[in-house]
Amino acid sequence: xxxxxxxxxxxxxxxxxxxxxxxxxxxxxxxxxxxxxxxxxxxxxxxxxxxxxxxxxxxxxxxxxxxxxxxxxxxxxxxxxxxxxxxxxxxxxxxxxxxxxxxxxxxxxxxxxxxxxxxxxxxxxxxxxxxxxxxxxxxxxxxxxxxxxx
Length: 150
What we know:
Layout: E1 2-10, H1 14-21, H2 27-30, E2 34-39, E3 49-56, E4 59-71, E5 75-82, E6 86-95, E7 101-110, H3 120-146
Antiparallel strand pairs: 1-7, 2-3, 3-4, 4-5, 5-6, 6-7
């Protein structure tokens, strides 16, 4: 199991950050590797299942995922039910004293041999770099919408 973690700030309250990051229908808005999502059994909540398609490292990947935890403004967690490999993802939200939200992202992946001989450390770096870029872009967009600085 490879564990990747990254913390970033968004210039909106925790409930607003949660509304963007924890709703799979919104993943294509902010995740550059996400091609599309499709909710399978209703709105985002515990037990919600969705199909998500990524294009990462030149590969097209389709997963079926289920939401395990969904606490608006606090925490969300999801895991794969099917796909080319398994993963578990978590977002934890905390209000910052100076305003905005600190988001702690955790991603645990069991890639098997899907990426061939790619070392775990390299895959971790690719995942963190992707979230770093995407969250930075999202922070800028949210700041622009709010008329503030990221």
